[in-house]
Amino acid sequence: MRIAVASGKGGTGKTLVATSLVLHWAARGARVTYVDADVGEPNGHLFLRPDIETTRRFSVPVPRLEGTCDGCGQCQEACAFHAIVALADRVLVFPELCHSCGACTLACPPGVLRMRPREVGTIREGGTDGVRFLDGVLDVGEARATRLIEGVVTTAGSGRVVVDAPPGTSCPAVSAVRGADLAVLVTEPTPFGWHDLGLAVRMCRGLGVPPVVVLNRADLGDGADAALAALDVPVIGRLSFDPRIAEASARGEAAIGVVPGFAEQVARVADAIEGFAREDRP
Fold it and tell me: What pTM, to 2 d.p., does this model score?
């Protein structure tokens, strides 16, 4: 199954949970793929420390004028994203706004607009400790991450895949969660955490992906039971606050291997996910 580990806000412990889950399963002999889909700021490699075996540039198609423009303006009218401006004898293309839909090329009567590849980032692949590793690195200055996220998730293929999604509920997060079998939403017991968890739950349900919750730093804050009951979403794990986890992360170490008692908490979360998988696959 494909599991998307997501959150309504940053800093909740999403990467902590995602990397811990893959290390837990790999230690038990399972074949698992970790995908860091937070392409604007990937950091899973800091904790998994993979050996990067291959890198490849990732491109998206954007229109390019190849011929004589008659200035009809139909390409501009066809573009829903305002990524192209028609002038008297040529067109201006703003590639950062282009969604690669190709409508402008279909609307061009003389057919002088052609879709051509434009590099936007890099996909890296490697492995470590029985974990297949994938991540995407968006080029500096690129405004749209969605196509690169879709590319790195597609590269993962089938099998047991854990996608470490970008924070929030905007287009990048949607691209990472769409198509998953289960969304593990990591939150914390704060007013911001409850508010943004509600947004993430609605995002998942809108995509048709069943959400479950892991409550990080569960022994801090109040009102957790009431807030979670109001969202009507299953809670599959509660991780205790432990300063040693933050210390391990600051050193670039996987907390599951160095913080006493944390591995057992992760195991309970993994077992709960396995239970959902068995329910869906008789």
Answer: 0.91
